[in-house]
Write a structure and sequence with these properties.
This is CBS domain-containing protein. By secondary structure, this protein is α/β, with parallel strands linked by helices. The protein is built from 8 helices and 6 strands, in the order E-H-E-E-H-H-H-H-H-E-H-E-E-H.
């Protein structure tokens, strides 16, 4: 089973603001980060981008989120300016589930369930061929 066509992958040195905009515009749960030879390195989930954007004190005390006005929230975007994808990643890389190009939909579904990842990188000879998302896989599995 091949990955979803056209699913964007990003590199460590890509602009964080551009990548975050793409993530939001395409309504993706995350992105696969690849090296210069298109080998998957890790996953950048949207939740990790939020962890980077939201100040730690707000994460630690969610009641503060209620008292911060929307104009201040709009300024969070400035946290991404001049940053790279590498800056958004946690210190410990998130495990990236890998599937072979000939894996079945059920094999990939089992891998997603086991790893609790909304993305699986489909690779051949270590290089990224495509990506399967949980929503795309559910559509395929539930098609009647």
């Amino acid at each position: 089973m091949a990955g979803e066509a056209g699913f964007p992958a990003v590199r460590l040195d890509d602009d964080a603001l551009d990548v975050t905009r793409r993530l939001a515009e395409l309504h993706l749960p995350g992105l696969i980060v690849v090296d210069d030879e298109n080998r998957p390195l890790t996953i950048l989930p949207g939740s990790q981008v939020l962890r980077f954007l939201i100040p730690r004190y707000v994460q630690d005390d969610p009641a503060l989120a209620r008292v911060i006005d929307e104009s201040h929230a709009d300024r969070l975007r400035a946290n991404l300016e001049g940053r790279r994808v590498a800056d958004l990643l946690p210190a410990e890389k998130l495990p990236l589930p890998l599937a072979d190009a000939d894996d079945t939909a059920l094999e990939i579904a089992a891998l997603m369930a086991r790893t609790r990842s909304p993305l699986v990188a489909v690779v051949e000879d270590g290089r990224l061929l495509g990506v399967v998302t949980s929503t795309g896989l559910l559509e395929r599995l539930l098609a009647g």
